[in-house]
Amino acid sequence: MIVLENTYEESIVFPGSLNLIGLGIVSISEITHNIVYSKGIGNSLMKKMIQLYKKEILQKEEGKVIDLIGSYTVYVHFYKLDYEIIAIFYLNEKDKLVRYEDLCNLSKEFIKIITLNRPISEFDNVCKKAVPNATDTSALFIISSTGHSLFTKIKKNMNYLSENYIQIGGFISAIITFSNEVVGKHSGEVLEAISFENQQLYLSMKDEIIFAYLVEKSVKSKNTKRYIELLMEEFFMIYKDHIKDFNGDLSPFGKFEKVVDRYFVI
């Protein structure tokens, strides 16, 4: 990231939780653009918004845009910094009100982080108040169809799961294989969830990779499924080549914890 000289000295009144759908921070120039940070917005929608507003952003260099895309309201704040323009995209439900002053204060905080060249982890800290993390998930397992546990994160108080995550990964892989062969072969149905007394284990599979997450029934968040879909997208963006040529080395997958922590409190 470029070190910029301009800084914001004023005291910023930081908003409470805004409960936005998502946000993205993009560096834009005449030649190219770079997604610096994104949370809650899929890659295809992020690219669509950049394409829609890039021309106006480059022409005006500084300003704000409010628009509608389908069932969403889009807010764009953009600022000229040195030889690049930083555009901050906010996405909210169309019928849900948000205090515009809070968005402006949030943008100032993001610009401050950029101009002071602070670490990207500070985006996460600020963003939690705008796009809240899901708190209902007790465990996340990312498993290959052959039963390799590629990534696991489990709440600290769930000792049994932590001590047996390898066996659990094998069990999940086996039960999905069984379901596909015995049930889905004729009906076309897939196993999507296993219900326990107080928890539900949800299952999603894409390109031979299984994403399983354990959710507390009493505190289920409306964002959990959407966040899992975004995690899946980011996982394949990061590890596509590594999965294709997988040789048993699990060490690269440990870095995915930073992405998981962006969306979940586990």
Give the CATH level 1 class of the largest domain. Answer: Alpha Beta
Shape: elongated
Number of domains: 2
Structural class: alpha+beta
State the separation between the terminal residues, measured CA to CA: 29 Å
Main beta sheet strand tally, sense and closure: 5 strands, antiparallel
Count of alpha and pi helical runs: 7
Beta-strand content:
25-35%
Low-confidence regions: 1-14
The helix-strand sequence is EEHEEEHHEEHHEEEHH
Average pLDDT over all residues? 88
Radius of gyration: 21 Å
Named CATH architecture of the largest domain: 2-Layer Sandwich
Number of strands: 10
CATH fold-level topology of the largest domain: Beta-Lactamase
Helix content: 25-40%
Question: How would you describe this protein?
Answer:
The structure is a single chain. With 266 residues, this protein is α+β, with helices and mostly antiparallel strands. The chain folds into two domains: 22-127, 2-Layer Sandwich (Beta-Lactamase); 137-263, 2-Layer Sandwich (Beta-Lactamase). Helix content is 36%, strand content 28%. Strands 2-1-5-4-3 form a five-stranded antiparallel beta sheet, sandwiched between helices. Strand 6 (137-144) and strand 7 (149-154) form a beta hairpin. The two termini are 29 Å apart. Residues 1-14 have low confidence and may be disordered.
